[in-house]
Every structure is written in structure tokens, then in C-alpha cells.
Write a structure and sequence with these properties.
The protein has about 400 residues and is of the alpha/beta class. It folds into two domains: about 10-180, Flavin prenyltransferase-like (Rossmann fold); about 190-400, CoaB-like (Rossmann fold, 3-Layer(aba) Sandwich). It has 13 helices and 21 strands. The protein has helices at about 20-30, 50-55, 70-80, 95-100, 105-115, 125-130, 135-145, 170-180, 215-225, 255-265, 310-315, 335-345, 385-400, and strands spanning about 10-15, 35-40, 85-90, 120-125, 150, 155, 160-165, 190-195, 200, 210, 230-235, 250, 270-275, 280-285, 300-305, 325-330, 350-355, 365-370, 370-375, 380, 385. An eight-stranded mixed β-sheet has the order 12-11-8-13-16-17-19-20, with helices on both faces. Strands 2-1-3-4-5 form a five-stranded parallel β-sheet, with helices on both faces. Strands 6-7 form a two-stranded antiparallel sheet. β6 (about 155) and β7 (about 160-165) form a beta hairpin. α1 crosses α8 (about 170-180) and α3 (about 70-80) crosses α5. It starts with 7 loop residues before the first strand and ends with a helix. Bound molecules: cytidine-5'-triphosphate (CTP). Cytidine-5'-triphosphate binds near residues 255, 280, 308 and 309. Cytidine-5'-triphosphate (CTP) binds near residues 278, 280, 305, 329 and 330.
Length: about 400
């Protein structure tokens, strides 16, 4: 169950050219399981219509004409009280000013006054209007009252100018929404470190020794921890994936860099999840210059890398807050036996045993099938699931270990 499942989101849409992007947001939120009720201002309807939103949400969308309809006396209160979140995206300078001053002259602004849920505002306007002292003061007022403000992004504006005023893209908006909805989750205010991806060990300036890890399971764990309210640090090797919104990201390449990052981040963390596929061997002497084929086939001498989880185990007494350490066991044979040995030798609280010989689980694919082995002897075989579902289940179990 994602943090968006069955959540009631009120989406206020105002009269900015970016209103068309709000339809995509409504659609993606709906696809993720949220119930989205859109409220359009009169100006928004110059760009998009309630039908646009009804078509993508499958729910009625509201306009100012509803303010004077049959249910008018209760509509704004009903909408405002049942919502988990009110998002106003895009929010014009005009609506921002009305919100800051408690004006209630449209269904959206009257609903904003009546609502008791958190408010996320995504201003979108011309750069000059955004920077104007009036707009900035209104934003400050709303921030002081506890509203979440998603700063506009920089770039091309409808005016033809370039500046700060663009509505951020849908994934950024959804990422912020997830963080707000997850704020009181199982891991609220706990620092969680997740490592992800395959490390890269240089052979020369252009070549590396690496592995087939895509980083997908680690990124999914970082997202699931954020959804559960955690403060997440994602230590990642280069991947093609976009880090989840809200995570602090530390970029590393080699096993040694990952070790250093994990040790420095672990001093105040409560959970460490080592989902990364860390190299066990690296070239002993990486060439300074590119190896040339005229020089013949190189003989590469390898040396061992340090085991990060074992290094953490050796320093647990210094890591006062660290309560749960989780590893993965990527195995092509004797899965549970090898995983149980790693659980013990690396002094883990939980290990996810991963059969990498299966084509539908492990490296690179979208799904995973892991068996969880706990330090207290419990064993739980999870079915074949998406990596996100696997991550959510693991985060739930980790939260259980923290209690
Ligand atoms: N790991 C680590 N440091 C290493 C290698 C692995 O911390 N140098 C972590 C991985 O992130 C994973 C767990 O240890 O959580 C098990 O990794 P895996 O590759 O399955 O096992 P190894 O310990 O490397 O042993 P082997 O490759 O021989 O099976």
C-alpha cells in the first residue's frame, strides 16, 4: 500500500498557464491510488476545464459555479474537512495573496479557510511577480502559518523570459506530496541510511570493474522509508535512476568511498540498510593513463575491499543511535544457508536473501522475491512482488524491530 493509496487530495488549480500541468498531476496521483478532488478557479477555467480533471480522476471536479449550487452551504466544509492534503498547484500571485489574507471569495479560497489538513502551495508565475516584495511577504506569512511551499523552478517562462517561476514537474510535486503525507509514519523523524547500486572500481581513467546491480531495490527502499516519515540519506553509486524527492543524496563510486560515507553518516542514524552491491575485489593499482592495446593484454592484480557491514559491526559501540542494520544476500546457490551465515558474521538484525539465479528477481529486473531472516531466528518468505512492494514490506518489518 503506497502512501498515496486512498488518500483524499484536494487539488486547487488557479489561472496560470501551468494549469495544464495540473491535469498530469491529477492523473498520476489517481493512478497511484489517491482520490483527487479538483477545484478550479474562474481564471483556471480559461486554460483548462473541470471536465479535464473529471476525465483523469474519475471524480467530480468543482468550479465557482458550485459555490452557489444546491450543496453550496456545506460543500467547502465537506471538502475541507475530509481531505488529507490540500495542494494548490499552480498557485498564482493573486490566489497566494488571498490565502495570506484569509480572503474567501471563491470555492478554492473558502475551502482553504475551512480545511484543517496540511496545505502545499506550488507558486507559478512570472519571475518578476514571484520576486516582488508583496508575493514574498505573502509566502512568508503562509510559511509562518505552517503551509508547505514548493519553490518554483528556474527556466523558460510563458512571458518568453527566463527566471524562477515555473511549476515544478509532476514527479517533484508528487515527491513533496508523499513526504507530507508520510510525515507521521512508522519512521517519523528517524534517520535511515540506504545504500544503492553497484560500486565501480577503476582499472584506468576510462574503465571500471562493476556488477549488474541497477540500484532499483535500494531506491525503492529509500522511497518507502520517506513514505514512512524517515529522514533518509541515500548513498548511491552512479545509476540511471532519479533519487526520491526528500532524500539527502551522497554520490560515491568505489567501495572505499561508500565505506567512508556509511561510517560518517552512521554516527547519528538509527537504521542502516545496505542494499548496494559492493565490490569484494578491486584492481590493486589502477593505471594513471588509459591502458593501450598496443601494450598487450594487461594482467590485472586484484586486492580485497573492506567489508562495510563488518566495519560497521566493529564500530557499533561508537554508533550510539544505530539500532537496526539490514543487509542483502545475493546468492546463486544455497540461498538460505549463505544468508544465515552472513546474518551472523556481519552481526545484522535482518537480512534479505535474494536468489539471483531467478530471472524475475534480483539484479536489474522490476520485481523481487526475497526471504527475510531475522536475528531472533524468525523467517519470512515474501512472494514475488514489485521492488516497491518489497521495500514497503521491509520498511514495515524494520519499524517493528525499532519498537
Ligand atoms: N557488503 C558490504 N561490504 C562488502 C560487500 C558486501 O557491506 N565489501 C554488504 C552488501 O551490501 C550486502 C551484504 O554485505 O548487504 C552481503 O553482500 P553479498 O555480496 O551478498 O556478500 P559478500 O559479503 O560480498 O560475500 P560473497 O560475495 O562472497 O557472497
Amino acid at each position: 500500500m503506497s502512501v498515496l493509496s486512498n488518500k483524499r487530495i484536494l487539488l486547487g488549480v488557479t489561472g496560470s498557464i501551468a494549469a495544464y500541468k495540473a491535469a498530469d498531476l491529477a492523473s498520476k496521483l489517481t493512478q497511484a491510488g489517491a482520490q483527487v478532488d479538483a477545484i478550479l478557479t474562474d481564471a483556471a477555467q480559461k486554460f483548462v476545464t473541470p471536465l479535464t480533471f473529471q476525465s483523469v480522476t474519475g471524480r467530480r471536479a468543482y468550479a465557482d459555479s458550485d459555490l452557489w449550487g444546491d450543496e453550496a452551504h456545506v460543500l467547502h466544509v465537506g471538502l475541507g474537512h475530509t481531505a488529507d492534503l490540500l495542494v494548490i498547484a499552480p498557485c498564482t500571485a493573486n490566489t497566494l495573496a488571498k490565502l495570506a489574507h484569509g480572503q474567501a471569495d471563491s470555492l478554492l479560497t473558502v475551502t482553504a479557510l475551512a480545511s484543517t489538513c496540511p496545505l502545499l502551495i506550488a507558486p507559478a508565475m512570472d519571475g518578476g511577480m514571484y520576486n516582488h516584495a508583496a508575493t514574498q511577504e505573502n509566502l512568508d506569512t503562509l510559511k509562518k502559518r505552517g503551509a508547505y511551499i514548493l519553490e518554483p523552478s528556474e527556466g523558460h517562462l510563458a512571458s518568453g523570459l527566463s527566471g524562477k517561476g515555473r511549476l515544478p514537474e509532476t514527479p517533484e510535486l508528487i515527491g513533496r506530496i508523499r513526504v507530507i503525507l508520510g510525515r507521521d509514519g512508522w519512521l517519523a523523524n528517524r534517520k535511515v541510511i540506504v545504500t544503492a547500486g553497484g560500486t565501480q572500481e577503476p582499472l584506468d581513467p576510462v574503465r571500471v570493474l562493476t556488477n549488474k546491480s541497477s540500484g532499483k531495490q535500494g531506491y525503492a527502499l529509500a522511497q518507502a522509508a520517506l513514505d514512512a516519515g524517515a529522514q533518509v540519506t541515500l548513498i548511491t553509486t552512479p545509476t540511471s535512476l532519479t533519487p526520491p524527492v526528500g532524500a539527502e543524496v551522497v554520490h560515491v563510486q568505489t567501495a572505499k568511498q561508500m565505506l567512508d560515507a556509511v561510517l560518517s553518516q552512521s554516527s547519528d542514524a538509527e537504521v542502516l540498510i545496505m542494499a548496494a552491491a559492493v565490490a569484494d575485489f578491486r584492481p590493486k593499482n589502477a593505471a594513471q593513463d588509459k591502458m593501450k592495446k598496443e601494450s598487450g593484454v594487461p594482467q590485472v592484480e586484484l586486492e580485497g575491499t573492506e567489508d562495510i557491514l563488518k566495519a560497521v559491526a566493529g564500530r557499533r559501540s561508537e554508533m550510539k543511535r544505530l539500532k537496526v542494520v539490514v543487509g542483502f544476500a545475493a546468492e546463486s546457490r544455497d540461498l538460505l544457508e549463505n544468508a544465515a551465515n552472513k546474518l551472523e558474521s556481519k552481526r545484522l538484525d535482518l537480512i534479505a536473501a535474494n536468489d539471483i539465479s531467478a530471472s524475475d528477481a534480483g539484479f536489474s529486473v522490476e520485481t523481487n522475491r526475497v526471504t527475510l531472516l531475522f536475528a531472533d531466528g524468525r523467517k519470512e518468505a515474501l512472494p514475488l512482488m514489485s521492488k516497491m512492494d518489497t521495500a514497503e514490506t521491509m520498511i514495515e518489518r524494520i519499524a517493528g524491530l525499532l519498537e
